[in-house]
Amino acid sequence: MVDLQGQYAKIKDVINPSFNEVLESAAFINGPKVHQFQKNLEEYLDVKHVIPCANGTDALQIAMMGLGLEQGDEVITADFTFAATVEVIALLKLTPVLVDVDPITFNIDVDAVRKAITPKTKAIVPVHLFGLAANMDEIMTLAKEHNLYVIEDNAQGIGGDYRHNDGSKTKTGVIGHVASTSFFPSKNLGCYGDGGAIFTNDNDLAHTIRGIVNHGMYKRYHHDVVGVNSRLDSLQAVVLDAKLPHLDSYNNARRNAARQYNQAFKNHPKITTPSGLSDCDSICDTCDCHVFHQYTLNLKDVDRDGLVAHLNENGIPCGVYYPIPLHKQKAYVDERYNEDDFTVTNQLVKSVVSLPMHTELDDEQIGFITKTVLDFIDG
Ligand SMILES: *Cc1c(COP(=O)(O)O)cnc(C)c1O
């Protein structure tokens, strides 16, 4: 699904010497490299504060801790996402409230969010799923009406833009009150181990969070709040700082691959290709909204699992993200859920398939993949 070796070969001349520098300096934790990457990412995103941490799951948890959410507070998020999103809500003894997604964008359905709001609701967690920004203008308006926090789960969306209703653009992850991201190796900006970060423009929240990631310490050995230990190490920061200048070109390479896939599957009656936002529906040269963490097809009247097997037999990796709705996962079942409220997710888990997507795909590979998909579907 990804080609990290191919990508590494192109940046190893930058990474290897910087790795050696860290080894010689022995500043493994909180060294100057971490600070340098943090500053560079703040500048890239145009956000006041980036707080690096150990992984994207921690980042989400710490964001929620920073906002002071308490046991019993309800947090609304999408039924169709990676489990980490709902996991941290439950871990903090908050009440997860899962809602359905939009059938075209796969992102959280704002009408469903509106219906799920109760006096106990404290936050909404939109996920920019597969690299496409959620409907942030409507989510922010709704949140304001009900005095709710918005925590963007930007693990799959880094480097992407959100196009506001007025046509202006903002980077994903700097629209809500706070955002989390992951630097897991296969993410669009990935390191060579685990890593993550929290973004916010709120100075007070940033201060609170900087203490939380460091055992609740604001002054050495004074623990004012219960915190965690979650940090990015210098070696990972080296990788991230070497890759950050390439992030836009990496995302462009992904979009290029997506454009070629879309072309091959265009107007096929059984295949729905990924959509951009409504005003940039086709993936064009100027459309930089979607960053294609995954390239996901929605199939109709196709034996999806048969297709997966056929692709695998031909040496093509593919994935089903995600095969089970979160509301049906054992850990998160809740009698308050009603199947009629999850018709979209219940369908998507049966009909989606994600094709290989990374920065190193070439025309020949894409041609082979699309031909193999079409051979199966068209018999
Ligand atoms: C990857 C991912 C996470 C978790 O990130 P880790 O770094 O693996 O902890 C959270 N949310 C979403 C949507 C993700 O894709």
Keywords:
globular, alpha/beta, 379 residues, single chain, binds pyridoxal-5'-phosphate, Aspartate Aminotransferase, domain 1
Q: Could you walk me through the main structural features you see in this protein, from its secondary elements to its overall organization?
A:
This protein has about 375 residues and is an alpha/beta fold. The chain folds into 2 domains: about 5-245, Type I PLP-dependent aspartate aminotransferase-like (Major domain) (Aspartate Aminotransferase, domain 2, 3-Layer(aba) Sandwich), CATH 3.40.640; about 245-379, Alpha-Beta Complex (Aspartate Aminotransferase, domain 1), CATH 3.90.1150. Helix content is about 40%, strand content about 15%. The protein has 12 helices and 14 strands. It has a 7-stranded mixed beta sheet, with helices on both faces. Helix 9 (about 245-265) packs parallel to helix 12 (about 365-375). The model is unreliable at about 275-280 (pLDDT under 50). Pyridoxal-5'-phosphate binds near residues 55 and 57.
Give every kind of bound small molecule, once each.
pyridoxal-5'-phosphate
Might you state the CATH topology name of the largest domain? Aspartate Aminotransferase, domain 2
Which percent band covers the strand fraction? 15-25%
| Helix and strand element order | HHEHEHEHEHEEEEEHEEHHEEHHEH
CATH architecture of the largest domain: 3-Layer(aba) Sandwich
What would the average pLDDT be, to the nearest integer? 94
Distance between the termini: 24 Å
Q: Strand count, sense and closure of the main sheet?
A: 7 strands, mixed
Helix content: 25-40%
**Strand order in the sheet with the most strands:** 1-9-8-5-4-2-3
Principal-axis shape equals: globular
What is the CATH superfamily classification of the largest domain? Type I PLP-dependent aspartate aminotransferase-like (Major domain)
Put simply, the count of helices is 12
User: What radius of gyration results from the CA coordinates?
Assistant: 21 Å
